[in-house]
Amino acid sequence: MNLFFSVALALSPLEVTVIVISGMSFLVMFGIASAKGGFQDLVKTTLANDESRRNRDKK
């Protein structure tokens, strides 16, 4: 494992391990959410809320 960045940031091996596990967990959870279409629902909801807020503010 290339620890170049961890040396520059003075990170211990435990901290590097926690960062790697957290990053991998994020990618897995993002993949699951994308596969289930949760991201698309979030975008639709956000756009609908934005439209309703703009219409409310126009009045």
Task: Offer a quick outline of the entry.
With 59 residues, the chain is an all-alpha fold.
Description:
There is one protein chain. With 59 residues, this protein is mainly alpha-helical. It has a domain of 40 residues. The protein contains 3 helices and no strands. The longest helix is centred in the middle third of the chain and has 24 residues. The chain is elongated and about 55 Å long. The chain starts with a helix and ends with a helix.
Quote the beta fraction: under 5%
* Arithmetic mean of pLDDT: 82
* Helix-strand topology string: HHH
* Shape by Cα distribution: elongated
Tally of helical segments = 3
Low-confidence stretches: none
Number of strands: 0
Helix percent reads: over 70%
**What does the radius of gyration come to?**
20 Å
| Main beta-sheet annotation | none
Structural class: mainly alpha
Distance between the termini: 59 Å
Features:
59 residues; mainly alpha; 3 helices
Secondary-structure blueprint:
Blueprint: H1 4-8, H2 13-36, H3 38-58
